Amino acid sequence: MKYLILLLLVFTFAGSQVMAQVDQKESAAFIARVLPDRKNDFLIEEIQQENGKDVFEIESKGGKIILRGNNGLSVASALNYYLKNYCFCDITWNGTNLNIPAVLPAINGKVHKNTPYNYRYYLNYCTFNYTMAWWDWERWQKEIDWMAMNGINMPLAITGEEAIWRDVYRGMGFSEKELEGFFSGPAYFSWLWMGNIDAWGGPLPQHWMDSHKELQKKILSRERSFGMKPVLSAFTGHVPPSFKNKYPAAKVKRTNWDAGFPDVFILDPEDTLFEEIGKKYIELQTKEFGTDHLYSSDTFNENIPPTNDSTYLSDMSKKVFRSMTAADPKAVWVMQGWMFHYNNKFWQPQQIKALLNAIPNDQMIILDLYSDAHPVWNRTNAYYGKPWIWNMLQNFGGNISMFGRMRHVAADPAIALHDPESKNMVGIGLAPEGIEQNPALFELMLENVWKDTPTDADEWVKGYARRRYGKATPQMNEAWNILLNTVYSGGLTEGGNESIIVARPTFEKKIDRVLTGVEYDQLKLVKAWGLFVAAGKELQSSDGFEYDLVDVTRQVLANYASPLQQKMAKSFKDKDEAAYKKYSAEFLVLMDDMDLLLNTRKDFLLGKWISEARANGITEKEKNLYEFNARDLVTLWGDKESGLREYSNRQWAGLIKCYYKPRWQMFLTMLDKSLKTGTPPDLKAFDAAVKNWEWKWVNLHDNAYAAQPKGNAFETAAQLYSKYSQTITDAYAK
What we know:
Layout: H1 2-12, H2 24-34, E1 42-46, E2 55-61, E3 64-69, H3 72-85, E4 90-92, E5 95-97, E6 110-114, E7 119-122, H4 127-130, H5 137-149, E8 154-155, H6 161-171, H7 176-180, H8 189-193, H9 206-225, E9 232-233, E10 238-239, H10 243-246, E11 252-255, E12 264-267, H11 272-289, E13 294-296, H12 310-325, E14 332-336, H13 338-342, H14 349-357, E15 364-368, H15 381-384, E16 388-392, H16 406-418, E17 425-430, H17 439-446, H18 457-469, H19 474-484, H20 522-539, H21 543-573, H22 577-598, H23 606-614, H24 620-633, H25 655-677, H26 683-698, H27 713-733
Helix pairs in contact: 2-3, 3-5, 5-9, 6-9, 6-11, 11-12, 12-14, 18-19, 19-20, 20-21, 20-27, 21-22, 21-27, 22-25, 22-27, 23-24, 25-26
Signal peptide: 1-20
Domain Alpha-N-acetylglucosaminidase N-terminal: 28-106
Organism: Pedobacter hartonius
C-alpha cells in the first residue's frame, strides 16, 4: 500500500521537481556508448534545477567522478565538460580524441555550472536534407548523444512527418496515386514541408514512410530520455495539387517559390478546412509520436503573403494558431524569423506586429535564425515582447567551405542576453542548413550554453587545438590564430567562398550561386597550411588533425583555382595557345590532386553519400530513386534547367573527378577547337550540351564511387604542399 501511495504521488507531481528527472539506466547507457572501457569510472547523481533552468555538478570521490544533473542532458553535459577541461579530449563530427589518462584526473572541490537559457535550440529544416537525408538509427544515436553533451534541449524533429500526412490525406479520401503528385523524394522534404515544392524526386515509396515513422519514434524516445523537448511540425496550409478537385469550394491559391519549380497550392487559413486539417494532423502526430507542445509552422517561408493588410495578417496568424490549439490547447508556436530577413521589404514593423501580436506571448517562440550576421531582434523591438532565441545560421546549402564569424559567436549571445533591449530572450541555438563541417565554429558557439559571459576566442582556439590533437604545439597555436583571423573572420555573405571548379564552366570571375570572392589574406592561409604540414609527423595519429589538415589543404587549393582560371581566360583572349595549354592542363591536374586528397577522408566522399542513400531502399527501383535524389541535390537541385544548380555544391572526391572535371574538359575542348580554327566558341551549343551531360550524370547508377577512404592523408597533403605552396605563394604575392 505504501508503495502504491508513493507511486501515485510521483504521477500526481509529474513535471514538478518532486519527480525524478534523471533516468539512471539511460544515463549509464549513454556513458557506455561514449566511453565503453571507462563506464565504471563514473557515478550519476541527481540534483534539482536552479531558477527553473538546467544545472550540473562534477566532483571526485573515491577514485571515481560523480556527474550530477537535473536531467539526462545535464549529466551528459557534465561528462563533456570533464572530458574537455580535465582530460583534454574532444568529440566532434569530424574527428574525435578520447585518449583518456589511465588514472582519471581528480577535481579539486566541486564544479558547478548552470545555464542562463531556458532553451538551446538545434537544427534547421534544411539540415534534414543537406546533411541528414540518409541517416539511419546508428548515426542518429550518435547525434543525439552529441546534442546532449552540448546541452541542446530543443531539437527540431521532423523525421517521419510524411507518414502522418499520408494518413491525414488518406483519411480525407485521397488515393495513393493522387498523393504521388504531392510527396517529394527524401532529399527534398524540407521544401515540401515549407510549402515550396511538390513531388520533385518522387514518387515516395511506402516503405520509406513506414520505416521513417519508426525511426522518428526512436529519435523522439531517445531525445526525451535526456530531458529534451523536441519541436514537431504543424500545418502550414500546403496541400496536394489534387486538393482543388476534391474540394472545389475550398479557398486554395497558387504560389510559386520562384526557383524554376511548378506552382504549389496553399489553403487559405480563412477556409474552415484549414483548422480541420491542422487539428487532424496534430492529433494523428500525437498519437504516433507524443508531444511536448512545441510546434513549428512557417506559412510564408520565402513566399510573400497576398496582402500586407494588418487585419488579414493578424487573422491569418490566429487561424494558423487555432489549427494547433484545436488539437493541443497547450500548443506553443515555434516560428522561424527567417522570412523577416529574407523578405524584409514586405515585413515592415506594422506587418510583423500584426502577425505576432495575434498570439499570446506564452504560446509563441520566435527563432531569430540569422543572429550571427543579420539579426532581426534588434530592429523589431525584440519581436515586440515575444520570447525569442538567438541563433547561429552559418551554413547555406551544406557547402563545406571553411567559414564562420568566430569572434561574433564567442561574444554576441552573452552581449545580447545582457542588453536591456533584448527583452524576452529565452535561449540560444544552432540553425545551420548543413552540418558535419567547420567543427570548431560549432563547438565555440556551444561554449555559450553554460555561461553568460563572452568567450575569449584567441585563448579558446589554443585550448581547442590541444583537446582536438591530443597535445599543445606552438605550430598549431600559430596556425589556429591565423585561421581565427582569416577563414573564421567571415563577413556577411551566405557562407564561405566556394571554388570556381564547382561552377558550370566559364571564364567569368563572378558566378551565380557560386561565391568565389575571398575576403581574407590568402598568403596567411598558405602559411597556416605550412604549419599544419610541419606538425604532421607529430600529430598525424590524431583523427581531428587529419581532418583539419585535409580541410586546410582543400581550401588553399580550392581558392587557387580562381587565379588559375583567370590565367586560362587571359591566355585564351590573347590567343596565346601555348600559355592556354599550360594553364588549362594545370587546372585539370589541380582537380585531380584535390580529388586524390579528399579520397583520404570519409568526410569528403561522394561514394559515402550515395551508398547511404541506396541503403535506404529495399528494391533496386527504390535504391535508384534515392541515388537520383542524392546526386541531384548536390548538383542540379532540380531538372537540367534548374536555377538552383550548384546551390548545394560539395568539394567531394568523386564529384570533382567525375562531375566537375568532365564539364571543364568539355569547355576546354571547345576552346581548343576555337583557337585552332580561329572561330569564336559556340557558347550556346556548349550550354545545351553540358546541360544534357549533367542530366545524364544525375540519372546514372554506375556504382563508380568508393564509400571508404583510401590513401594516406598526411603524405598526400605533404606532397601537395611541396608541389603547390611556392607556386600559390607567387600567384598571390604579385
